[in-house]
């Protein structure tokens, strides 16, 4: 690889790769996530009569599994209930698995929910190829992982 190369992404964007990047020089926080999900019981109706009790169950799961901010991370926004928080650690440890557990429970409880979780871990294998955020897409009762086309690669898009 010379000074840099590029890789075409499935969504038509082009990922620019640089041979000068070292995979462990990405961020001050080694593992981080930023989450935004609008909560809904179904894809047709956000509240089918059990939304409040299901949200309380989700709150208990989040309190038990995640160390995130704000502490009460389910809020009302314009007649919707939104789960939004951020978390991070020096090393991922079991934090990411716990996040995935929470998301799995969320889509089981509230399959109409939709939103995004941006996450990165500078200790992941493969960072030399993709130096950026990964995105967990929550929609229609499923969670899918994608590569971020907007804030990645971290260098030079958001960091020097």
What do these coordinates show?
It is a single chain. With 160 residues, the protein is α+β, with helices and mostly antiparallel strands. The chain has one domain. It is built from three helices and eight strands; from the N terminus they run βββαββαβββα. The chain has helices at 51-65, 95-109, 154-157, and strands at 4-8, 14-18, 31-39, 74-77, 80-89, 114-121, 134-139, 142-147. A six-stranded antiparallel beta sheet has the order 4-5-3-6-7-8, covered by helices on one side. A two-stranded antiparallel ribbon has the order 1-2. The longest helix has 15 residues, at 51-65.
Please give a handful of descriptors for the protein shown:
160 residues; single chain; two-stranded antiparallel ribbon; alpha+beta; 6-stranded antiparallel beta sheet
